Amino acid sequence: MNSVPYFEVLKLAAPETIVVLAALVVLAVDLLVMRAEPVRYRLAVGAAFTCLGCLAAVFWMFNIDQHGNAMQGMLVVDPLTRLVKQALLVLTVFTAVISLESNFTEHVGEYFALVLLATVGMMFMISSEDILMIFVSLELTSLSLYILAAFAKQSLNSAEAALKYFLFGSMAAAFTLFGLSLLYGLSGATNLSQIAAALKGQALDPLLVAALVMTVIGFGFKVAAVPFHLWAPDAYQGAPTPSAAFIASGSKLASFFLFAKVMMLGFAGAEGSGSWGSLVPGWVPVLAVLAAFSMVLGNLTAIVQSNVKRLLAYSAVAHAGYALLGVLAGNQQGISSLLYYVVTYALTTLGAFGVVAVVENATGDARLTDFAGLGRRAPLVSFCMMIFMLSLAGIPPLAGFFGKFYLFATAVGSTAQSLGLVWLITLAIAMSAVSLYYYLQVLKQIYVVEAPVDAQMIRAPLPSKIALSLLALAVVVLGCAPNLLVGKLVAAIKIAGL
Amino acid sequence: MLAWTVYISFLGVAVLMLLDPAHKRAARMIGLVTALVGFVIALAGTLQYQAGSGVLTICRVPWIPSLGIAYHLAADGISLTLVILTGIAAVAGILFSWNVEHRVKEFFAFYLALIGGVYGVFLSFDLLLLFVFYELAIIPKYFLIAIWGSTNKEYGAMKLALYSFVGSAMVLIGLVAAFVVAGANTMSLFELAKYPFPESFQYWAFPLVFVGFAVLAGLWPFHTWAPTGHVAAPTAASMLLAGVVMKLGAYGALRVAMTLFPLGLKAWQNEVGLLAVIGIIYGAMVALVQKDFKFVIGYSSVSHMGFVLLGLVTLNEIGLSGAVLQMFSHGIIAGLLFGVVGRMVYDRTHTRELAVLQGMSLSSAIPFAAVTFAIASVASMGLPGFSGFVAELQVLIGAWHAFPTLAVLAGFGILVGVAYTLRALQQAFFSEHVPAVEPRTHPLEAISIPERFGAVILIGTSLLIGLYPRLLLDLIVPSFSSPLFEGLRKGGLF
Known about the structure:
Chain A is mainly alpha-helical and 498 residues long. Chain A has 21 helices and 2 strands. Chain A has helices spanning 6-12, 14-33, 39-63, 79-98, 108-127, 131-149, 156-187, 192-199, 206-222, 231-238, 241-248, 250-266, 283-303, 308-329, 332-363, 374-377, 379-393, 399-413, 422-448, 462-480, 483-496; strands at residues 68-70, 75-77. In chain A, strands 1-2 form a two-stranded antiparallel ribbon. In chain A, strand 1 and strand 2 form a beta hairpin. In chain A, helix 2 packs antiparallel against helix 5. Chain A is globular and about 70 Å long. By secondary structure, chain B is mainly alpha-helical. Chain B has one domain. Chain B contains 22 helices and 2 strands.
């Protein structure tokens, strides 16, 4: 470890480097050249550079087949992390496109630069298997996201959202750091696999339990699992819609992947068992309880929401509960089902926020009643929203359905002998039946309720229309042909050997 | 070729979606042509099928190889019977909704999407695929009722959607558990039907999956969505709901729950039989006191579907084939009844209160409706010559072998059935009651050509099957000797 092979690291981190460069370019172009131009124009240029940077990174990863593990897990590049990073960058591109019509800020350059920096943080989250690096990348992501949530400077709600997000987040970060430091103290290593190797064979001593619980708290906050979800509804509602969309999609994907990795690699051997009637302490029962509470509370609270962004927030809590099942399964299939679920969920929820952004621009708010008669006022956007809502509810043949099926089958399959996790799956399926109610409430406003008399056609901008259609198409295609993604995931996971 | 029944329906949806909303006539024509083509394909496929040749695979390609899931469409005599029913019901439903004026193209788009899903369920032999089509049918139902319905439509629509979804959630739990327990990494109905699931597992998995499906078949006490949903639905949707959607539930119970978990079935046979008979009698009794014409038919559906469920658990060949025949027969007759009540009477008089209808002397105002309803009543009561008679007779004979007491009780249900049908017929059309209101100044609009066609198709089918039941029985009966029902036969169940 004496000499750091900088060139090797730079080569492995090329995609991240590209995105950082893009962030700097966006900032420079906007601040130096475009200062005097109208905001709309600056937004277009900023978004264009953002997309360009992300797509360049995607193509780099497509074309240059690099594998490697720099400095003992500080930066791991294998087909799996590459695939997840590509998915993440695609989400960033769509986020940039739905930001195009926003009118909440004049600081266009800073906005896109922060989006890109958050993306870089997430890319490192995906790539690292070392607790130091994990913490640094978590903080890079979080700090960028706090600012993004506060970006609508004129709006009190945005400030409140950001403050809540920040306070909860920094508390969670403190827990994570404490947990990770205990882990280092116990094992003397910072690499996840080495930690697990050092702890192997030991009984579950109180210190390890403390480390485990604190780490779970930190990640529970990131993925908005009950009872660490309290920030989510306010942050989603108050933050500017594109920021909320990014928090709900890209950040979820990276956090879940990292969460699963930390649990499966770092706490290997401390699984325990979450089977009904035969609980064994470990991280599986802890996550099982979090998942159960998230599904129940998220779904039941979503029923009474009258604001679509809040509704999406509680639905996000519920979906975090489902996704935890994939972590729980704790095997290769589990990772594959988790990633399929989270990727498709992120695409869907990003689309839903995109539609909310369109409605918000036209009506000024995102209450359920603002969607009344949308089917008439914006047919294409409404149709996309129908696909997103039905996919979130888990109606086949959309991606949300297959995602749930895959997760459930995998989670039950991980305890095939005793069917110990059937209780959790039963709860999950029952709760997803509940969720249909509130998703149908949104669709009822759109298609059944008539528009107000003075309502006019809503003209969504062309880029938004294209982005939403592409997202809806992706949800349909991934649902009808899940193998497109599952096949790649399974192959990549095999090579990565998680 | 039969697979095209599914594709053509969704093709119709796609074409309708691209259509200009102003072209109402074109939308209707596209709907009708699609349904007709679907029906012709169903018929041609059935004629090609040689009775007794077992399960005929139409198309089988790997779909999600890592989970062993295949896109497997196939058909046996039972599926074919129901596919033809779907074809007829679809055409008749469109003929009876020719007068829809509000958001026409969307109406037919949702309608065809529902039909496509239904065809898909009847033709799927991979469990995940079957489930996909099964759930696909929920959403169009919701919109058809919530947008175009009447009387408490949003409540009825949501209730129906949630009941269906909860039912399918139960099914999904059972399927996931079966998939994992079998451990063969396959969802093929054939493979799983061969797998001997442990008895303790079947004991809880069977009721879960059976009831999950039977919710949609109107199993008492999970039937409450049916009357409200039927009443709230627009005519065509209630024709489809009673005509084919309730059959989805019964079909799923037979195709999935019973073939996969024969031992579980044996354990729960009496309980399910009892619930079915309670449904028969309860539905009939409640129908007897309804004030709303459509509620009478709604509850009669619960009662008649009780016969299907009773036939299924008799577990002898005559009872089982009677159950399938009753699915077909009730699909036709209920469609006809709802067509008369919803389209011919309600759309013209704008009331369904039997007390109000009494004063309208409808038998002279719209004689065609009166005659049609009289024929439909006769068929519904189970008089010889109509399909209902053959079907319910077989179920009763089967039930007599399996559980005589229940058979007697079910026979009592038929008697009550006669009573409520005659009551509704008499009050709605042939009342001697002197009109209290002043005579109508506007004569009722005459029965239109599409309605006449629709009614004739349905009456003709019921008569044809009533007079020559072998047309369908020759398809249905040999199907029970296919390897799918091996588990049931091996258990000595029939």
